[in-house]
Design goal:
alpha/beta; nine-stranded mixed beta sheet; 11 helices
């Protein structure tokens, strides 16, 4: 026999069955259910007919469950837990989102046109106007620590390693080339094998942290003479004419367009760095975080299409 759909009628009968089992019999369940024993007996009989199972024994030996009754009781408890969870979840959807959403970004991601962070903030604010977005910039390792310690809800970083306590949502990829300024001796040199040798000998400023094997490979044979983690400071070092360095193309497009910067041996010296959103892998659900992440990933997916 197939049970088929379970509706309100079956749920009411199961509630009676629950009261009878947990009270220890028909007579004991009368006060809890506020109905007579004959009515309770009718409900249990209807449930047994509906399930085509014998659920309990009642007689001189007292009340007891059959093997099938024990199994149905356990399944019923699972059903009621699931129903309560569904009810609570739906009710939570009607609760207004309030409080703060803490977003921490690495370096120049905030104004990277590929990130479209201002558009994501606008979309999120329209959907959750009572949530305050707190946006700040920190170093990469600090962002990972803050998200892991629940000091930040979302971190925006270049992907460089996989930590077990974090979830990673890909956003976009930054393209990097090696740049020098107009003031650097290599600015007017034509692309050639000789230029590549000069590039390897020139002083290079770099971030000072391991971001990816590809970045490490690009810097391996170079003259790493200075460290500057943040893009703005690194750009100042490059513009001085004393150093060359890798920069994201989107960050320096204005200087390239004006002729202040030039990409050196671009067919050889370049790499891509994936930008991701990180969140805690464990902990209670955060609707504001999920909504903002949906806005952010939706925005960047538009650009990739």
């Amino acid at each position: 026999m197939s049970l088929g759909q379970v509706g309100d009628f079956e749920i009411r009968l199961l509630k009676v069955f629950e009261a009878v089992v947990e009270s220890g019999g028909f007579s004991a369940a009368e006060s809890e259910l506020s109905i007579g024993r004959s009515t309770i007996s009718t409900h249990i009989a209807n449930l047994e007919d509906r399930l085509d199972l014998k659920l309990c024994r009642r007689g001189r030996g007292g009340f007891s469950l059959t093997e099938e009754g024990v199994e149905v009781y356990e399944l019923m408890k699972e059903l009621f837990v699931a129903l309560d969870g569904f009810r609570s979840g739906v009710n939570a959807l009607h609760v207004r989102l309030t409080g703060n959403l803490r977003v921490i970004a690495s370096d120049a991601i905030c104004m990277d046109p590929q990130a479209r962070l201002p558009e994501a903030i606008a979309e999120f604010t329209a959907a959750a106007p009572e949530v305050n977005v707190l946006l700040d910039v920190k170093a990469l390792n600090d962002i990972e620590r803050m998200v892991l310690n629940d000091e930040a809800d979302i971190g925006l970083i270049p992907f460089h390693r996989q930590l077990s306590g974090l979830n990673y949502a890909p956003l976009y990829a930054d393209q990097f080339h090696l740049y020098c300024s107009r003031a650097h001796p290599l600015y007017d040199s034509p692309n050639s094998d000789a230029l590549l040798e000069q590039v390897l000998a020139a002083k290079v400023v770099h971030a000072g942290i391991h971001t990816s094997p590809e970045v490490g490979s690009q810097l391996a044979e170079m003259n790493k003479a200075a460290i500057s983690y943040f893009y703005e400071a690194r750009l100042a070092m490059i513009l001085s004419g004393a150093y060359i360095g890798f920069m994201p193309d989107a960050f320096v497009q204005q200087q390239v367009a004006s002729g202040e910067l030039r990409a050196l041996v671009p067919e050889t010296k370049h790499y891509a760095l994936e930008i991701v959103a990180i969140t805690r892998a464990h902990g209670k659900a955060n609707r504001a975080r999920a909504l903002f992440l949906e806005s952010l990933t939706g925005m960047t997916e538009v650009d990739r299409v």
